[in-house]
Amino acid sequence: EAKKNGRGRYQVFAGDMDDLLLRKQKVEAELRKALDGDGGIKLAYQPVFAVDGRRILGAEALIRWTHEVHGALPAGQFIAIAEERGLIGELGKWALTEACRFAVTTELPWIAVNISPMQLRDAGFAEQVASVLSEIGLDPARLQLETTESVLLEHNDTITSVIADLRDSGIRIVLDDFGTGYSSLSYLRRQSIDKLKIDRSFVRLLDEDKSAAAVVKALIELALALRVEVTAEGVETDGQKALLVGMGCHQLQGYLLSPPLEPGQLLALPGVSSANQERSAARA
Ligand code: C2E
Ligand code: MG
Ligand code: MG
Ligand code: MG
């Protein structure tokens, strides 16, 4: 029987092997149903801020699945199952389409969508993204795609050319969870990317001691040396924020500034909805 863990969240991966296999099959079937439009899958949007902590530069789409029995499931877990069961292409396309449809109704400079490294191994991926954008009418310059370092580790010509095609079309490529993988400096130079996001596990270290802070400083300096943008994720305290700004970090994201929001909540923030701007212009 599946149990809830301490935080009260349903854990797909807990329990013995037979249970695990059965549960994964069940999750797969339920995920297919949700993708067919039973309404359980949604996107939340977490804004990304300038270093003043006020100006919104863009927002990241984060998938949410509320299971009818188990409630909110951790994204990392059902995404791993989708990858394992060959559903990630479909799930990824749904998220991309949904996020772009939302972005086009806003004044947000850009929207960031997470993509699985598996999607980048599909030679048709760049074309698929281009057709979603043109159908919706979203400028490619307003789309960022976040992926993890494991992509850079692969000596894979398909991935390299898919990334090049995406960038040629004006889409920006972001390396997520930076610092947690094994990407070497030579890979970072060879694969062209536009932004690094420092993983939350490093940002958390900032509260600990000086030597831990030196690691974060080195990651930021690496980004600056590569002339790419750098975002800190998981910023939770004023102390972390002050240190990051002092180190030259460009962008901040985290609970201190804003948690992931429902679309309506994001639209209510200043500078996100054109309706808001018209209202404030009328007031002025
Ligand atoms: P990520 O892209 O690195 O996203 C950051 C995660 O940290 C999110 O968890 C976010 O809710 C959480 N977070 C943000 N600020 C804070 C903070 O200040 N403190 C703490 N403790 N956490 C914070 P979430 O939404 O559970 O997503 C987990 C991961 O699942 C994401 O990590 C991303 O890798 C993946 N993911 C989410 N949506 C998608 C998607 O549409 N497609 C794919 N392929 N992966 C996705
Ligand atoms: Mg991300
Ligand atoms: Mg991340
Ligand atoms: Mg992360």
UniProtKB/TrEMBL annotation:
<protein>
    <submittedName>
        <fullName>EAL domain-containing protein</fullName>
    </submittedName>
</protein>
<feature type="domain" description="EAL">
    <location>
        <begin position="24"/>
        <end position="274"/>
    </location>
</feature>
